[in-house]
Design goal:
This protein is of the alpha+beta class. Helices cover 50% and strands 18% of the residues.
Length: 263
């Protein structure tokens, strides 16, 4: 007789249901990232706050959730991040890009990262830090603006309008006509050159270069970016980085059977 068969059927069903509720709360934490209150989480999953709190305590104890001591808000914990990274490591784009970004980081001594399209927009999933200062925009799990970052604009240039429409509209509402026209100019440039350089757009004093990665069928699967302090990542160094990044992105795409679509 196995250990499971010794457990009464009703007890097994209760455990399965409990696990399903716990997984549902964990998914909700991910969807409400980076952090959320107990009341908002309870409303989101349609459960009493007292019940959600019990599950959250179990998730905190196991490392799958964390509670901020200042705001009392909840967020995903280190164990959840480890599981997520393990899943991401199975993605071809991550496995293929990592060695190339390590080599590029070593060559340029600038921070290099890979972003993929997530449910919240451009999401950083892999980072190779330079020996210089660490910037907040290059942390794993960071969600970058679509129209306010070099990485985001590359996604906007090559993803279908249906995929970006909601995020684009929400960000465009805070921009004026002149700014939107300038963004459209950048988008056209990205589509024609396959690389994008920007100075201090997302963070003052931080310059960035981004390039798309494609899989078979010219499907955009990620964006690779190099970022550096404007004090050392000067125009000349940035132009050189753009050339090397474009070659790196093209090499990654080639290994994945992809190529940039014709304009």
């Amino acid at each position: 007789m196995t250990e499971d068969s010794a457990i009464p059927a009703g007890s097994r069903q209760q455990k399965v249901q409990s696990a399903e509720v716990g997984v549902g709360i964990l998914k909700a934490l991910a969807e409400l990232a980076p952090a959320t209150s107990l009341s908002k989480l309870a409303e989101y999953v349609g459960m009493p706050a007292s019940k959600v709190h019990r599950y959250l305590q179990a998730l905190v104890d196991s490392g799958f959730a964390e509670q901020d001591s200042v705001t009392n808000h909840y967020r995903l914990g280190r164990s959840a991040l480890q599981v997520g990274l393990a899943a991401l490591s199975q993605l071809d784009v991550l496995k293929t890009s990592a060695p190339a970004l390590i080599a590029l980081r070593d060559e340029l001594n600038e921070t290099c990262f890979l972003a993929v399209w997530g449910n919240k927009g451009p999401t950083v999933v892999y980072v190779e830090q330079s020996l210089g200062a660490v910037t907040l925009v290059t942390q794993i799990g960071s969600v970058l603006p679509l129209l306010g970052s070099s990485t985001g604009m590359v996604f906007d240039a090559f993803l279908s309008p249906a995929e970006t429409a909601a995020l684009r509209q929400s960000e465009a509402d805070s921009l004026n006509a002149k700014q939107l026209k300038e963004i459209d100019r950048h988008i056209e440039e990205i589509r024609s050159t396959g690389v994008h350089q920007i100075h201090g757009l997302l963070m003052a004093g931080v310059n960035a270069v981004s390039s798309p990665v494609f899989a078979m069928g010219s499907k955009l699967v990620g964006v690779v970016t190099v970022v550096g302090s404007a004090s050392v990542f000067t125009d000349e160094r940035q132009a050189l980085a753009a050339q090397k990044l474009l070659k790196t992105a093209q090499a990654i795409s080639a290994r994945m059977g992809g190529d940039m679509p014709a304009v």
